[in-house]
Fold this protein.
Amino acid sequence: MTPSKHWPDCRYDYRGARVLVTGGSNGIGAGIAAAYLAAGAEVTITGTRPSASDYEQDLSGYHYLPLQLTDNSSIDAVAAALPALDILVNNAGGNFMQEDEYAPEVFEKSIQVNLLSAYRLARACHGKLAASTLPGGAAVIGLASMTSYFGVEVVPGYGAAKAGLVQLTKTLSMHWARDSIRVNAVAAGLIHSNMTAGFLAHEQATAPSLARTPLGRFGQPLDIAGPVLFLSSSAAAYITGQTLPVDGGFSIAG
């Protein structure tokens, strides 16, 4: 999709802000990381490969840390490697539809990757976030999904994890408000990314979802990046504990 009237033109100033975007090497995470970088932030991204040079795309503008969401020691190492932090975007995740999420061990892996890892990283980063002097307070942003609200038969673990993330957003926001840390989430609709590429390539399969989407298109990573930057900005200083659907209207259509 080429730039068009759908592309956002709002601008943020994040100069001096230290940001971590997990899974920032591709897809939605790459869009979020690029938006923070363009706004002047110092951005650290994570990926599953050993170094930034192992990716085809140019990641030289970012600090890079390897992260395996199934490995708690890897999660802790990422938090420990950050000298300071103002904004944490828990974007990394994935579904395991091809491995059968109804198998208990695969279900558990999906919960680890999409929920437990996000909590563990947020908790490990708490002290650094609490020390932030960012206007509006430090921010944790989670990436929820339409599966937080609707049953999707082929990904029971992923759906359970994303529903749990919505609840975690509420409880962490209450517990960490005393530390001036705001906790919110974005529930993404169908967005063009590596995870959705196979599905979105089949027009017949996607037709019902597209027909239900009032805006008449599926999203791009920048459609998620804008709301994320808003929620971590001082413009959202009185917003916490919320999950914002960003889905082209899919969730409100009959």
About this structure: The chain has one domain: 18-246.
